[in-house]
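Pilot study result, target chain (1003 residues):
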Amino acid sequence: MLLAIAPLASGVDSSVRITQYAHSAWRLQDGVINGEPLAITQTADGYLWIGTANGLLRFDGVRFVPWVSSDGQHFSKSVYSLLSGTDGSLWVGTGSGLVALRDGVLKSYPTASGRVNAIIQDRQGVVWFARSRVHDGRGPLCEVVADTVKCYGTSDGIPFEQSGTLTADTFGNLWIGSETEMIRWKPDSVSTFKLMTPKSNEGLEGVGAFAPATDGSLWVGIARTGRQLGLQRLWKDKWISFRTERFDGESLSVTALYLDKQNVLWVGTKNQGIYRIHGDDVDHFGTIDGLSSDGINALSEDHEGNIWIATSRGVDSFRDLKVVSLSAREGLGGNAPGPLLAARDGTVWIGNDDAVDYMRQNEIRSIGTKEGLPGQRVTSLFEDRDGQLWIATDRGLFVYGHGRFSPIRRADGSALGLVLSVIQDNDGVVWAECLGDPKGLVKIEKNKVTGEFRDPEMPAATFLAAAPQGGIWLALRNGDLARYQQGRLQEFRFEASHKPSVAKHLIANPDGTVIGATMSGVIGFRGGGLLQTLTSKNGLPCDSVYSLMFDAQQNIWLYMQCGLVRIAGQDLKTWWDHPNAMIHVAVLDAFDGVQPSEQWFPPAAIRTGDGRLWFANESIVQVIDPAHSFRNSIPPPVHIEEVVADRKRFLADDGLHLPPRTRDLEIDYAGLSFVAPQKVRFRYRLDGRDDAWQEPGTRRQAFYSDLRPGKYRFRVIACNNDGVWNEEGASFSFFVTPAWYQTKLFIIACFVAGVLLIMLLHWLRMRYAMNSLSARFDERLAERTRIAREFHDTLLQTIEGSKLVADDALDQPADLARMRRTVEQLAEWLSRAIQEGRAALQSLRTSTTETNDLAEGLRRATEECRMFSPMKTSLSVQGETKEMHPVVRDEVYRIAYEAIRNACVHSKASELEVELKYAQDLSIRVGDNGVGIPAPLISHGKDGHYGLRGMRERAERIGGKLKVISSANSGTEITVVIPGRVIFLRPDKSPIEKIISVFRDTK
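Predicted structure:
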């Protein structure tokens, strides 16, 4: 544990009064404490615990937090006693038994019931407790053995059944108190001590508290409702009452005792507040001084030496202050202390209203008007080289000695007016600056005024300082400085734009420099007439300086509006050499006891022979010992108390998992220093989020609102009021749980899906490009094939027919009439070939047939057939004619035309039948009774001929089925069937929709 290895504080300073400690009180009416405090202790982790009539509280110096178990259960029992175990545990004595708190878990010991009034741990680490309201007959003293409790009663030499107090002395004895007696007990030894007063034991309440002393004696606090035994000391088995000249310990009704680290006894009473006993010195503090209540229930001391008091109405604490105050409460003769003087015999003189106070050996006495003090206000104090004390009041200047005040008079016998400052130069001449009559500088030799210097001969001043090199320095009322030596005045003026306020305090140093306090900063003079100022621009916390003084190490202390400021000698030298330099300063503020205020009558700062610095401020006198100023060397323990995530509270345990989508995260932490908890500063860092330490100052929460899912580690360190850091601090790790869409698996899946999608899009794009390119090639090939078919089905066949006609005419060249008919027919066929060629070209853009009547096209084809053969032809149409797509219709026409043409030219048939049928689908049948087509030609076609191949290609292109049946005996039958959804147009669709539908269906 950090506190176990840290050096313990020495405790509060016993040389000062209780009223000079820093006192804090938390009262029930403030609402921060939930019941009457009955017990108080500090555990090894640094927390302060308060047992109340309504439960258990934990205190970190700022917040009182009711203890709650990890499962949310509150501690609702009355707590009468507490013990901080050496193992870090907290032992809690309740009205129904004993429980132990370890690592946030409560363990009960139900085998010993009753109210547990006191708990101790002996040198062997054994836990003992005393109890009352015992009903099990097992005795008032119990010992914790492992997980059980062993109790001791009458059979073990304990003569009473109830006990309210328990302690262990340096010899290992247990002391147990009851209402009528107390015993010193060991398992094999018992000694009884009766509680009796000289007169009677009527009204006896019993032993209220024990406090074993280091010398082997035992302090015993006894309470009665009638005559009290009060505070007693048991020494070698004999009772010794504690009495001093001003204090009688038997008058107390003692309820609590505590010996602090300086062996000072603190005494808590039933209704008289607290007493502090140091030797024969007794000090008191009660409600009239600010204590929360005069009824004291418990006393304790923390690791830093602060004293804690549980009263019937609240909790109080006392701690040392670096700057101690003196006021009327500590014995000053008035509430307006002014000028100060450190006499050579060690006496400190303090000017006040209606009195001049002097302090010798920490005892304050006053000389007031009853003792002959002339005047009601002391304005200046001075001791000359002969040891005479000069006291200036509102009625003049006086020399004090042997209890008499001798006035300093002018040549006409009149007294001096209001004197602001008195000093003595190297020649033994006393100088005084007067504000009344005469107004100006007065020269005094052999206690008589020998010279008066008035304005304008001598400018008006506010303060005088003797120059070690001779003469005197004057702080002029216009803000400048002047030196008067051997009848010669030399003025040193500041620039008009940098002229400071009037100096109210000057110090002339042996090295010839002069330094002064003004409301505009510190002014300085050094050789060569150079004037300079030290202000907030150089690093001072403010500019108003009331007074100043050097300590024994030549560091300068400034009593300022914003606190008591220390400037190291080396930093002051830096300022002398570099007037615009920034310097380092140390500031003591209200938490250190500083209560700055302006002082009207200088000098308001002195240094006594023991090195202490004294400052007066018109209401109190403040003292600091620079060489022995208490420094808190204990680094504060740091704890992370809880985590609040989206208004849900969690314990700050390592491995904490926070819910998904956590937005607002608050981490509460504490630094446990009770000297000045308001000055505990923190630094924190969240590994995984922060790149550097954050500086929240004294704030005790860290806030985050942008944490992504993942693992984090929070670290926090703290320093106490004197800047001592606990570098180890506290830390814990936690996880922000990802939502399902924030998991690694989901992210990886999204990544893979994204890659696959990109690959798919790339593949689709490449396929589209390839398909587009292939479509272009297919279109070109299809167009070439179509043109070939067109030329084969039209132009070439016409030319071939023309050749047949010509050949037929050449067979009979002598028949001129036949030759003429042949030539005429040949001319007609050639004209037709020209028309067919033009039609083929025109078919690239328009339909071959001009109308939608497929039957008419087939009729013309059969008529043309008779030109080649005298066969008998017939055409039949079945069903209602339907509107057809022109492109598909032309393809169907070409198929049927090719079948009719082949039958006419190659079949040698006598009959030809053509059948056109409109039904759900469109079908065309072309049949003849010719010689048929050989089977190999049906399957593979004839080389150099494209008739059947072209028909099949056309049928496949439009989604139709072509069937060829042929035999030598029955001729050839060619049937083509085109699906109706491909060729027929629906009347309820627009032309665009019809075309899209056709191309979709054909695809």
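One observation from the pilot: The two ends are 86 Å apart (CA to CA). A full batch analysis is planned for the follow-on phase.
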